[in-house]
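Project standup — Tuesday

K.O.: blocked on the structure for the chain from last sprint. Re-posting the sequence here as requested.
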Amino acid sequence: MDKQEFIAAHPEYGYNGTIDEIYKNEFSNHYPTNRIYLDHAGTTLYTQTQLDTHFNQLCTLTLNNPHSEQEDSKSLLLIQECIELILSIFDTSSRYYSIIFTLNTTHACQLLSSLFPFSSKSEYAYMIDSHNSLIGIRQQVKLKGGSFSIIDYPLHIYNQENNSDKDWSFRCACRSSPCLLSDTESNIPYYCLFATPAENNFNGLRPPLDKLLGPFINARENEIKNFPIPIHRYPSKKCHWLTLVDCAKYLSTKSFSLSLYPVDFVVLSFYKIFGYPTGLGALIIRNESLKILNKENYFGGGSVEYISPYDDSRVEYKSGINAFIHGTIPFTTILSIYHGFQLITHKLSYKHISLHTQCLIDYCRNEMLKLNYSNGQRLCLFYDAKNNFIYENGYSYGPILNFNLYNIHGQFLSCRLIQRIAADHNIILRVGTFCAPGISQAYL
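H.V.: unblocked you, prediction finished:
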């Protein structure tokens, strides 16, 4: 199939016929035509427009430190404009959510783990396909004497059989039952946390978020009997569950609505979305959830209004997002986010990004499944379960292909060998388990 035949068969490809123009204007200077870049799950490629508009802005504006608190501060106005744009991408506003800028998704998880009010009665539950940045939060729970648990998907997520008549319930994957105190021992409220990726970076699985997050969100106001998620501490008047979603991979090709799924926390990295800048992520916090967070054992910079160097007197911000932000934010770097999202909202759109990438993935997977050796041995093994029953039950897949390759004798080829061969042919791809140990072990 040549390119024109492919385009005719896949009209969703190519951003309404503008892909060649996009390449010429945005990538031709730093991305040669003979290179094939297949590591968008690691980081996407930044565009020429992003760089030009950002650096032109820096060359034409005088930006002061936001802590200088001038009423007409251009820095403050632009930062606030950028925050509102980010929140609008999430289908919300600063009325309902606030942002703490971090170094990346991992840093956002680390920060949340230090702020969350874990106690000896807390439970931290996470999905089995969580990135190890989410899994690492369990260390803080353990330090406070609490417990953690692992939630797994239905068994048929791991195979390609037709499973219409099988159990679609989520499963507990704990190796042993957590030791937890009884609810009757104290009337003091305590807090638990549930975490899930919106899309994992192993095979792109997107779980049915309404079934996964909905029960926790609904439990804020209503007591739910027969709770559908196999946690060990069920929501009650004393046991409050909050929700965390890792959107790092998901946001590269799809927007996430906080109006549809009003979770308590979201973590992300901006380079995953539009390549530039690196070293900048975010922890998005539901304003209603700010009040339960703990102040860190540190104060300074913008989190303190007054401090005496001679004694222990100080005045800290008691509420609001400023109570958790120490020091000057990277304001010149943050401004570049605005130009990245402007590119997505005005030139590409999440809708066309999703359609374009998904049609390429589907085509590539179907073609690779046709590849066999002369003795009939197939070449590719894919780690997914793409069938109608998966989709009918609310699951879907983002644009990731995870596979192993066989040799002619049916033995696996080393992924490092494949990476070297690909590099020799100017193909950039990612190999390994992608920091998602649970789902990797479940498949392998």
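K.O.: great, moving the ticket to review. Residues 66-344 form a domain with the Aspartate Aminotransferase; domain 2 fold (CATH 3.40.640.10). The chain is about 30% helix and 15% strand.
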